[in-house]
Amino acid sequence: MNIKEIDSQYVANTYARFPVQLQCGKGSLVWDEDGREYIDMGSGIAVNAFGVADGAWAAAVSAQLGRLQHCSNLYYSEPCALLAEQLCRRTGMKKVFFGNSGAEANECAIKCARKYAADKYGAGNRYKIVTLKNSFHGRTLTTLAATGQDEFHADFQPLTPGFLYAEANDCAALRALVEGDGAIAAIMFELVQGEGGVHRLSQEFVDCMVSLAAERDLLLICDEVQTGNGRTGSLYAWMQYGFVPDIMSTAKGLGGGLPIGACLMGEKVEHTLTAGSHGSTFGGNPAVCAGALSILERIDDGLLAEVRAKGEYIVSQLSSAPGVISVTGMGLMLGIATEKPTAEVVAECMANGVLVLTAHGKVRLLPALNIPMELVEKAVAVIRAACA
Ligand SMILES: *Cc1c(COP(=O)(O)O)cnc(C)c1O
């Protein structure tokens, strides 16, 4: 059997894979098992922040692997402490909890919000969390409950109770929901809904959430798992909306390709989680954190300006192209609504050496933050032709 057949027989059927087996890569180019070259416009769903086999990241990880590859959270270790310090310095947040995925970062955020409300208002009095319709927050039973898409819920009932869903960008509806229920502890949202089809929240709606939160002592939980770590053209997307969340989760690009999740806690909740109230065996792993430090320190103003410029170039080239209905998103997180079915566009791009993603009926682009401009130009030409 070849690898595709072995995989189909033995790996759980949870993924509908594209017919490509990736063997290796360098930067934003990847090669399949037959040596065919592709421009990677997905970067492992916004994970390979600096592309494949990035030298500085690989060197940081390898050096740490030769020193101490894992250390239980019963002991201190340098990369974990330094990464938490950098994350707090760059965001103004106060504490970081490390896990291994976006879902785990969100689990921590939800636990932290519930405990804050329980400590302050009494256990069981305030525990509900409002999330947005069409959102995506993860695959664990609780983050699935937080995910505002019924299609993900049906087969797994009962989910964790205590989640309410509000329409994105509808302030009046959110106000009515929040004012009608005294048991709400927090509002949780993505500023650009990624899996839901690359939809931005409006500034007015964000302002609305911020004032409702202030009026009613609700925590604002910003899910920056996909939007974070430079993806939208600022270190975190909330930095472009003029507010500071109480809790922020991130993952995907932070590890540069290794599993990491981080829940950042602001002033209000910095003392909420106490020894024993949460934990993770692998969380804060030294090799993963050493790699993440190398990623974070290179997401500087110069790189962020490039992310914005490349994003603007892609939007300018595609938004009025034949067969393209609209282009939405921010920075290098873009969704393209096409006249052709997305599967056809994806297949045609693939046949012409460009890997693109989809999200809720759209073609989705999440290239490496440092993708060279010439590869952006080549990929855009292929995508334009595929959409026409
Ligand atoms: C990918 C994603 C998650 C889940 O992350 P995992 O690492 O797959 O658990 C959660 N929230 C958002 C916004 C995401 O894009």
Q: How does this model look, in words?
A:
By secondary structure, the chain is an alpha/beta fold. It is built from 13 helices and 17 strands. Strands 4-12-11-10-7-5-6 form a 7-stranded mixed β-sheet, with helices on both faces. β1 (22-26) and β2 form a beta hairpin. Bound molecules: pyridoxal-5'-phosphate. Residues 101-103, 106, 136-138, 190, 194-195, 223, 225-226, 251-252 line the site of pyridoxal-5'-phosphate.
Provide the fold topology:
Elements: H1 3-10, E1 22-26, E2 29-32, E3 37-40, H2 43-46, H3 55-65, H4 78-91, E4 95-99, H5 102-121, E5 128-132, H6 141-146, H7 150-153, E6 163-166, H8 171-179, E7 184-189, E8 192-193, E9 199-200, H9 203-216, E10 219-223, E11 247-250, E12 261-265, H10 286-298, H11 301-318, E13 324-330, E14 333-338, H12 342-351, E15 354-355, E16 357-359, E17 362-365, H13 373-387
Parallel strand pairs: 3-15, 5-6, 5-7, 7-10, 10-11
Antiparallel strand pairs: 1-2, 2-3, 4-12, 8-9, 11-12, 13-14, 14-17, 16-17
The structure holds pyridoxal-5'-phosphate (PLP).
Helix content: 25-40%
Average per-residue pLDDT, rounded, comes to 98
SSE arrangement, N to C: HEEEHHHEHEHHEHEEEHEEEHHEEHEEEH
Q: Strand percentage, roughly?
A: 15-25%
User: How many domains, in number, for the residues?
Assistant: 2
Strand line-up across the major sheet: 4-12-11-10-7-5-6
Global structural class: alpha/beta
- Tell me, what is the CATH class of the largest domain? Alpha Beta
What CATH calls the topology of the largest domain is Aspartate Aminotransferase, domain 2
Give the number of DSSP strands. 17
> Regions with pLDDT < 50 over 5+ consecutive residues?
none
| Fourth CATH level, the homologous superfamily of the largest domain | Type I PLP-dependent aspartate aminotransferase-like (Major domain)
> What is the distance, rounded to the nearest whole angstrom, between the alpha carbons of the first and last residues?
38 Å
Largest sheet data: 7 strands, mixed
User: Can you tell me the CATH architecture of the largest domain?
Assistant: 3-Layer(aba) Sandwich
Shape: globular
| Tally of individual helices | 13
Q: Any idea what the radius of gyration is?
A: 21 Å
